[in-house]
Every structure is written in C-alpha cells, then in structure tokens.
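Field: COMPLEX_INPUT
Field: COMPONENT_COUNT = two
Field: RESIDUE_TOTAL = 617
Field: MODE = joint
Values follow.
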Amino acid sequence: MPAILEVSNLTKTYDNDVHAVKGISFSVNRGEVFGILGPNGAGKTTTLEMIEGLRPISSGEVILDGIKTAEQPYQVKQRIGIQLQASAFFQNLKLTELLEMFANLYGSTVNPVELLAEVGLSDKAGALVKNLSGGQKQRFSIATTLVNKPVMVFLDEPTTGLDPQARRNLWQLIAQIKNRGTTVILTTHYMEEAKFLCDRVAIMDDGKIVALDTPEELIKQLLGRGFKPHVEVPPATLEDVFIDLTGKTLRD
Amino acid sequence: MNQNTRSFLALTKASMKMYYRNKGAIIFSLLIPVALLSIFGFLSKGGGNSIKISLTNHGTSEVSKQFAEKLKSIRAFKVVELTEEEADIELGKGMLDLEVIVPENFGAIENGKPGSSSIRTKFNNAKPQSGQIANLVIIEMVSDIDRKLTDSPAVLDVKSEGVTTNNLGYFDFILPGILSMTIMQLGIFGVAFSFVALKASGALRRIQATPVHPIYFVFAQASVRLLVTLAVASVLIVFGTYLFNFHMMGNYFNFAIICVVGILIFLGIGFAIAGWAKDETQVAPVANLIQLPMLLLSGIFFPRDGFPSWLKSITDYFPLTYVSHALRKIANEGLTLVDLPVDLIGMGVWLVLVYVLAVSVFRWE
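Field: COMPLEX_OUTPUT
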C-alpha cells in the first residue's frame, strides 16, 4: 500500500525552549486507520496540527498526498478534513446552514440532508449545535470534515467524554468512513478503541514515538518479552457488563 | 466565481444570520440609541427650544424702538428687558444665551445724518450654539436697519427673513452626538465581545482548519457590522426627523460618508481589542477604558468649550471628537466635506493608525 502521508524528523520547539515534539518519523498508508496513542502532553495534538498546516513546523518535513505542508498549507487543507479536539461552531446557525457554509469554504457543493443522514442526524437538520448532545455534536463535527470529500480525515480525541453507547456508535461511523476509502488518522486515550478501529498505532510519550505497529503485533511483542499481566484477565470486563445491561442503542 | 469571493460571501451570509438571530444584539444596537434619542427629544420639546436673550435698551430713537419690537417678534427668542448689570449676572448663571445692549445714540440723527453707533452683544461661552445663532440673527437685523437708514437697496432682506437657524434647538445639536455615540459603541463593544467569543470558543479556529484565510472572516464580520450600523443610523435619522423635527441643514451624502469613515475607525478599534484579547474578561476593561473618556469628553452631549484648555487640546484629537464635530457641522450648519479638512485629516490618520495597530496586536488564538 502506498503511503499517503510521510512524516520525517518532525520537531516542534517553542520559544520558551519547550520541546513538544522531538523529531518523529512515520508514514500512513492510503486507506488505513492510523491511531496515535499517548498520555496527555505527549505531543499528539501538536503533531496533528503541524501535519494539518495549523501550526508552524519547527523542523522536519511533512508530505501529504504529494504536497509539502510547510510550503502549501492551504493546498493541504483543501484536501483534508479536520476535526479539532474542542469543536465549536458559529452560534444560531442550523446544521444544514453550517454544512453549506463549510462546503462553500472549500469551493465544494454538498447535499446537507444526505450528509446528515450519513452520520445519523437526519432528524436534526434544523437544529442548532447548542441543542445537540455530546455524541451528536461529535458526529456533526465529523460531518463538517466530510464536506470537501477529503482524501484524509484527522480526528483529535473524537470519543473523549462520550458515554459507551455514543462511543461505539462513533466507532461505526469511523469504520464507515474507512470503508469509503478515506484514510483516517485519530488520537485516543482508549486502548480498546485503538484495538477496534486502528490498522496500525503509534504510541507517543514525551514528544517521541516509542512504538509503532499493528495492535496485534504490539501485544505479541510485549508477550514475547515475557510479560505477564498482574491480575488474571477476566473473560468479560465491567464495560461488557454495562453494555449487556444497558444495550447498544444510542441514547441521545 | 473566484474562490475567495465565494468564501467571503459564505462567511458574510453566515455572519448575517448569526447577527439577526441574536435578539439581544438587536436590542442592544437599536433600542438603546432610539430610547436615548427619545429622552432627549422629549426633554428638548419642553420649551427648551427658545433662545433666551436679554435686552438693555438705552436708545430713544424710533429706530431703536423698531429694533426692540422686531427682536421680540422672533418666535424662537425669549426676550426679557434687563439692565446690563442684571443681565451680566443672569448670563453668568447660564440663564441667558445672549445679552444685547443698545446704546443711547442708536439710530439717532446727528447733523441731519444717521450717526454711527454699535449694538454690543455678549454670549454664553458654554452654550455657543444658541448664543452664536442669536448673534447672527441680530447682526443680520442690524445690517438690515443700517441699509434702510443709509438708503442703499436692501438686497439681503430675503436672506434675513429666511434665517432658518431660527428653529435649531438642542435636539438638532444632540442627534449627531447620539449618532456618533451609537457608531462608536456598535463598533467597539459590538465587535469586540462577539468576535472574542468566537475566538475563545474555538469557532474561529475551526475556520482556520479550512483552506480559507481567517482574514476573510474578519472582512465578513466587518461588512455585516457596517451594514447594521448604517441601518441603525438611518433609523435614528428617520426617527428624529419625523418624531422630533430634526433639521438637516447639509446634505445626506456628506453625512453618510462621515458615518462610514467613523464606523470603519471604531470597527478597527473593536477588532484590535478582540484580536489582542484572549477572552471576554480582557475585553471589558480595555473597551471601557477607550470608550468612556470619549463618551464623556468628545462633546457629544455638551460642547467642549467649558473645558480647561489643556483638556480641550487633548480631546481635540479624539476620533469621536472628529466624527461628532463633522456630523454636527454638516447637520447644523450645512457645511460640506470641503469645509471640514481638519476633521477629515484627523479621521484619516485615525483610520490608518487603528488598522496598523489592529494588525500588529492581532492573535488568532
């Protein structure tokens, strides 16, 4: 599979000598879901924002779909869809109006009703963002990243703060985007999410990538190093109990 | 269509919808100036219109008698006969706008010819508007009498009759003031708070994630604000004209140009504050610090002539002073842009200054 994104020696250094990202390199293949895992402050968001052209690159190179982000950030933004960690939209605008506005900003046209149906918000077409639940907001936010039919979608912690039902629902939406052939790069704190969604994951800590492989391979490597879990892994988790009792139906 | 134009139009449309669906903003922008204007309108209707003049007539001639009668017959004047000493005291208390002293030999015939003499007037410096208007009328009357006495053709008779300043009252003075105040507040407060909210919430950041440079969003917001402010200005003028008999002596085109330049200056100040500030809490003190002194010291509610000279010199350079002065000169005295070079230069300098400042302090996040 050819790479759609090539990141080499990417560095972010702030004026106060803080090294947020310390020379990382990786590539993302066309059509895969690539996850970046890591604790808060590991440099995940900074990395994404440099790739997206939202934050200046201190050193290193990013080539996305054949374009150097540092040289043509607007060309890059034209081809990708970006969901920011804290998604906020103009107040007093209906969902359909916002989607139309975003489509215009890319010089693209969109059928807002169809797009809302794709993310499961058909009945919310005339609603305002402030009247949506957390999960609905995230699904709408993902819809706004699709108005330009992007080659790659960036999702920064898309499921943080959602209840288990909304989270699983969002997983389906992300899988759906992948099935259309769109490359997805996402950050998350949830390991089961990364395992479920991601073809490959990079684990970041302190501005560096400490591991990069498929989830299965990473687990195999760990076990190969003689790792034994501290407690016996139960055949079911508390989350399984929760989902079994409350069902998978979306609550918002 | 060019992509930048398309983006600009899409953002303008969105900004327009954001604005008119925000009921609070509409009330803030329209109801408050209209209410304020009404208060002044009703206050000035209560007899405040007449210009108070004292007459001290030492003259004995027929001409001086005629002069006194003619003065009393002018409807806009309230004439009381006082001695000069009494009149001085009243003028000092601010109860009079103009003192008129007719000398003993006024209009008297000396050696078969009309002798020369002059009427003295004193006006209240704190109320120069009404004092000067009355003064003009009296000069007009005296030259009229002069012409009759010396038998030269009274060509200026018609002009003398038609001194339209007769009805000019406090309301005519206050309307351009309230208009400039509204322009300032909609520019500074309206923009600074709403724009910084978009910045703090992350909505502006979301625009930056698209291929559009966020400056187009600033242009879109500015266009909407310009249109809204012009609409509010029109409402104030129509309202003032039909309900409180506002007199426009100049032309509306000149008036509108000053309004537009004024709006652009204050929008620039608003964007500079919003661009610099991180959130709403930083906007309030700075916006107040800038607008309060202008509100009180730019002469929008009362003339600045009573200020100590150092304060007057400082306030001369306030942007609101230029705007309100120019609007007032056009509305009250019928001046045109050509007659107002100082105001125009002042506004031009502020316009450049404000945008240079806005660009240099702007932070997108």
